[in-house]
Amino acid sequence: MFFQKPLGNNSDDSDGENPQSSNASSSGPSLTNLGIAPDERAGLLGREVTLLSAVMLNIGQITGSGIYAVPGAILSSVGSIGILLVFWVVAPIFASGGLTLYAEYASLFPHRSGGEVVFLEQAYPHPRFLVSVSYAATIILTSFNASNAIVFAQYFLSAFQVTITPQKQTLVALAVSFATAATVALSTKWSLRAVNFLTSVKIIVLIFMVFTGFAVLGGFTHIDNPYANFKNPFEGSSFNGNALSTGYLKANHAFIGWANAFNVIGEVRSKNPARTVRKAGIISLVLVSILFLFINIAYIAVVPRDIIGKSGQLVAVLFFQRVFGSAGAKAFPLLVALSCFGNIQARIVREVARQGLLPYPSFFSSIKPFGTPLGPVALRTTFTALVILAIPAKDAFNFIIDLTSYPNLVFQCALAAGIWVIRARRRSLGFPPAPLRAKSIVITLYLIFCILLLVLPWYAPCLFVVLFC
Q1: pLDDT value for 125
Q2: Highest mean pLDDT: which of 69-83, 101-115, 284-298, 424-438?
Q3: Which GO terms describe its molecular function (predicted)?
Q4: Residue 138 reports pLDDT greater than 60
Q5: Cα(443)–Cα(462) distance, integer angstroms
Q6: Which of 14, 55, 50, 53 is nearest to 32 (CA)?
C-alpha cells in the first residue's frame, strides 16, 4: 500500500513568487519542486492564514505546556538557577537559527504545506523515497499531542482540588484530546478562530504572570526575601553531559512551535507566503522569549529552589498558590489548563499521504466532508490516545519529550546539511540564490549544535563545560 501514486495538481510555481521556475525545463519538474508530490494550486484548504493568524498559530503552539511544566524538570537536571536561566536565553537563539534555515526552504517552495517533510523531500530526492519514508515513519509514530493533554489534565484537576491519580489524569487527558480533534476536524476557519482566541488568553495569562513576578520582586506582595534564590546562582551546578543536554532539550521543547506556520504555508493569504511566515516566526520568538524568561524569574522569586526541582509539572500551581493563596490555587491553574488546550497540526501527515507514503493515501489526503484534513486528525488523535493509555501517568510527560526530541534533532541535522545540497544543485544549473537566503555561518552553527545535543549524553562532562564556559 505504500509508494502509491502521489496525489495532487501537476503545476509548477510560475506566478512571480518563484521566478526561477520559469527557467525550468518543460519536460520535468521545476528546480523549485523536485519532489514526488506537486503543488496544490487550487488551495483546497483555503487561504485563511494571515500574518496575524500565522503569529497566533506559532504562539499558540509554543505557549502550550512547556513554560508551565518543564522548569522544574530542568532545574532538577542542571542543579542551579544560573544554568536554568542560561538555557531560557540559549533556546530561542537556537530556534532563530532554525527559523532562518526554514525561511530559505520556504522561499523555494511557497505553495507546499507540510514543513519538514517537503524540505527533506526536496533536499534528498535520491534514493527515491528513502528520506521521505524515514521521515514519514518517524512523524507518524510520534504523531501525537499527548504532552499538552497530560499537563492540561494535571492543572485542570489541581484547579478543582481533585487528587491527581493516574486514572483521573488519563481520563481528562483523553477527553481534551478528543475535544481538540473535534474542533480541528469540523472547520478550518473556526479552528483558526479558536486558536486566535485561545492564544489571546494564553498571552494575557503569561503577561499577568510576568507582572506578578515584578510585583513580588518590588516587594508589593507578602513573599519574603524574593531574591534569596538569586544568590550564588550557579551553586550546585551539574556538569554531567547527559544531565545538561537532557535539561536543555526540555527548554528547547518549550519553544517547539516556532515553525508551526511553515506547516500551513500553502494556506497563507499573501503574495509572498515565505516572507509572511518568516515574519510571523520572528514576531513569535521575540515575544515568547521575553515572556518565558521573565516568567522563570517570577518562579524563582516566589518558589524555593529545592521545591521547584521537586515540583514535576506543577511549578505554576505552586507559584499561584504562594502568591494568591487558596483562591489563586483554584482560579489560575484553570487558565493554565486552558493554555494547554491541544493544538493538533495535521498538515504534515496530510503531505506525507499526498506523497503516497501512507496506506489509503486518498483517505488521508482528502478534505471531505468538512473541508478539513479529517484523516490526519483522526490518526494523530488515535496515537495520542494510545500513548496516554500505554505510558504510566507519572512518567508520561518526560518520556514523551525525550521520545520526540531526539528523532527531531536527527532530521534537523539533515535539513541543515540539505540546504547546501540544494544550493549546489541550483548553482550547477545556473539558478540564482534563494529569495530568502540564510547565512552559511548560522546554518553551520545550527548543525553543530544539533549534533552536540545528540552526542553529548554519551561523552565526557568536560566537553560540555568547555563549550559553554
Answers
A1: 83
A2: 284-298
A3: L-amino acid transmembrane transporter activity
A4: yes
A5: 25
A6: 14
16 lies in some domain? no
CA angle 116, 443, 91 (to 5 degrees): 80
Q: How far apart are CA 449 and CA 106, in angstroms?
A: 22
Residue type, 221: T
Distance CA 114, CA 117 (A): 6
Residue with the three cell numbers 485561545:
198
Domain presence at residue 267: yes
DSSP string, 400-446: HHHHHHHHHHHHHHHHHHHHHHHHHHHHHTTPPPPSSPPPHHHHHHH
Residue 208: phi, psi to the nearest 5? -60, -40
Residue 313: its pLDDT value, please?
72
Residue 127 placed within a domain: yes
What are 49's strand-pairing partners? Answer: 268
The one-letter code for the residue type at 36 is: I
Residue 31: inside a domain? no
Give the C-alpha distances (Å, rounded to integers) separating 122 from 67, 106, 242, 268, 360.
34, 11, 34, 21, 23
If you search the block for the grid coordinates 552559511, which residue do you land on? 440
Q: Is the dihedral of CA 197, 203, 207, 213 positive or negative?
A: positive
What's residue 276's pLDDT?
93
CATH number for the domain harbouring residue 54 = 1.20.1740.10
Q: What are phi and psi of 44, to 5 degrees?
A: -60, -30
**Cβ-based neighbour number of residue 439 at 10 Å:** 12
By C-alpha distance, which of 234, 310, 299, 242 is closest to 76?
310
33 has a pLDDT exceeding 70: no
Tell me if 356 sits within 8 A of 140, measured CB to CB.
no
Residue 27, all three cell numbers: 519536460
Mean predicted lDDT score pLDDT of the chain: 78
pTM of the model: 0.78
Q: How far is CA 263 from CA 46, 138, 273, 349, in A?
A: 14, 17, 12, 10
Task: Find the range with the poorest average confidence among 259-263, 283-287, 311-315.
Answer: 311-315
pLDDT band at 6 (very low <50, low <70, confident <90, very high): very low
pLDDT in tens, 308-350: 988 777 788 889 889 988 776 677 777 777 666 655 555 666 6
The total domain count for the chain is 1
* Domain hosting residue 399, numbered range: 45-468
